[in-house]
């Protein structure tokens, strides 16, 4: 009998390329296993795998690429992720927790900065509508030893628990986390973790870091901070149904704003003003009202510090905090504290920051980027004379040794330091999601107070402050956040 060659191999390479490039990546892998000829054509075909990649996923941002991506390796990794997320076998999912979470994070870190048009985020969202994926890959930290539904259980290893908490922190809050769909909502247990003073130590800098002095992120702590802040902002938005409250729901859309460089400034009146009106106003005022370009110092800042930021600070009544931590407990009692159902106070603050100086990274900084020092002001949005919300501040933006973006702030009242904060920018450099962290007493008082805080950038303007040079501290009157 005459042997019959596979029909596909009769086509010229260009046509064969176009046929295969229009298939789903998983199907191309299957086709390559049908015969030696197709396997030889597919395996190692850089142009084919690149074409498949950019047809199905976001092209990695240029600033993320130090060398050409491994198109074939990465795409096969994504196909494996898809198979794990698609399977109904929970045991298979649980056997690949770390790999799945890490691959999902990689997709987010290389996603388009525009969440709405991102192929990577769309790819992930379709699978995390499945509750089984949520149970295994989002709700498997130690928090769910007590919180959650009956099918929520902590993963078996610390590495797995940290991986799921990180992915949950990128995913954001949800009806599950804030208690819309079950009796054992996560937020009371997360609140207990956030306000447990035993979790604030010198080795973790009183921030969202591991207790070993390494400045590695403790994602389980970040997860709890996010849930508490998300719940409080949700409650605030429901009680204050004003248009501005919608901008506070920064954790409520899955994976939104967690890609590097996803920050885009909000439009301002000056940006949308008719050019003829601008010219008329300039003539009437005898000077240009258009702000001059920022000086070179801002241009050298990789973190995008200069601008207007929204900040949220939450705190318990101090008597409640003290009773929760010391009422009826032995000093060495290591048992988890009970869930906190009492409500917290919330403060919304507008911060205006400017770069003061930039210096080389130190011993405890990542070496890829400099340390940026900034100064600024913070002012309460709703209580103009709040003595704990209106202040001046200074701080730093830098990289940790593992490459995460760390923010520190110190608030001053009457020229005296009062509050400090430690935060991580979720999503990396210039992410729209902004930072999540903790605020605490400037003396690191073992008796508190402490609480959760977050801030995210609104725009690049600080136009209501008079520029006096690169050191903006002298140009501010009283505008910083309260419980940094």
From TrEMBL:
Residue ranges annotated for the F-box domain, each copy included: 5-52
**One Pfam family cited in the UniProt record for this chain:** F-box-like
InterPro entries the UniProt entry points to? F-box-like_dom_sf (IPR036047), F-box_dom (IPR001810)
Listed name of the protein: F-box domain-containing protein
Q: Native species of this protein?
A: Venturia inaequalis (Apple scab fungus)
Its taxonomic placement starts with: Eukaryota, Fungi, Dikarya, Ascomycota, Pezizomycotina
């Amino acid at each position: 009998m005459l042997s019959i060659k596979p029909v596909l191999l009769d086509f010229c390479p260009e046509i064969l390329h176009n046929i295969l490039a229009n298939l789903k990546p998983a199907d191309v892998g299957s086709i390559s296993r049908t015969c030696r000829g197709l396997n030889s054509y597919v395996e190692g075909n850089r142009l084919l795998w690149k074409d498949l990649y950019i047809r199905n996923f976001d092209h990695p941002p240029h600033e993320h690429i130090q060398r050409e991506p491994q198109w074939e390796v990465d795409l096969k990794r994504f196909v494996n992720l898809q198979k794990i997320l698609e399977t109904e076998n929970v045991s298979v999912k649980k056997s690949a927790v770390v790999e799945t979470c890490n691959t999902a994070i990689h997709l987010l870190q290389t996603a388009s900065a525009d969440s709405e048009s991102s192929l990577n985020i769309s790819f992930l969202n379709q699978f995390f509508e499945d509750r089984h994926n949520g149970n295994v890959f989002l709700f498997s930290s130690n928090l769910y030893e007590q919180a959650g539904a009956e099918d929520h259980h902590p993963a078996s290893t610390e590495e797995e628990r940290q991986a799921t908490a990180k992915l949950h922190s990128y995913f954001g809050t949800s009806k599950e986390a804030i208690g819309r769909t079950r009796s054992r909502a996560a937020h009371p247990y997360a609140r207990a973790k956030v306000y447990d003073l035993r979790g604030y130590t010198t080795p973790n800098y009183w921030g969202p870091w591991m207790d070993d002095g390494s400045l590695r992120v403790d994602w389980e702590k970040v997860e709890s901070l996010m849930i508490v802040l998300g719940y409080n902002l949700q409650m605030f938005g429901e009680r204050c149904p004003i248009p501005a409250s919608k901008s506070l729901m920064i954790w409520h859309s899955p994976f939104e704003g967690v890609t590097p460089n996803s920050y885009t400034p909000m439009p301002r009146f000056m940006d949308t003003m008719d050019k003829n009106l601008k010219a008329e106003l300039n003539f009437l005022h005898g000077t240009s009202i258009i702000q001059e370009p920022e000086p070179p110092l801002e241009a050298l800042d990789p973190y995008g510090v200069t601008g207007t930021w929204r900040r949220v600070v939450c705190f318990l009544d101090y008597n409640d905090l003290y009773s929760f931590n010391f009422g009826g407990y032995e000093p060495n009692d290591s048992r988890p504290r009970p869930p906190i159902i009492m409500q917290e106070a919330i403060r919304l603050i507008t911060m205006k920051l400017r770069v003061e100086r930039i210096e080389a990274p130190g011993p405890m900084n990542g070496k890829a980027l400099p340390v940026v020092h900034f100064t600024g002001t913070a002012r309460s949005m709703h209580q103009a004379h709040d003595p704990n919300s209106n202040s001046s501040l200074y701080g730093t933006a830098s990289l940790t040794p593992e490459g995460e973006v760390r923010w520190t702030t110190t608030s001053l009242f009457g020229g005296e330091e009062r509050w400090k904060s430690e935060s991580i920018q979720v999503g990396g450099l210039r992410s729209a999601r902004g930072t999540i962290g903790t605020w605490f007493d400037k003396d690191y008082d073992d008796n508190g107070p402490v609480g959760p805080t977050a801030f995210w950038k609104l725009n690049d303007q600080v136009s209501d402050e008079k520029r006096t040079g690169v050191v903006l501290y002298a140009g501010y009157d009283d505008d910083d956040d309260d419980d940094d």
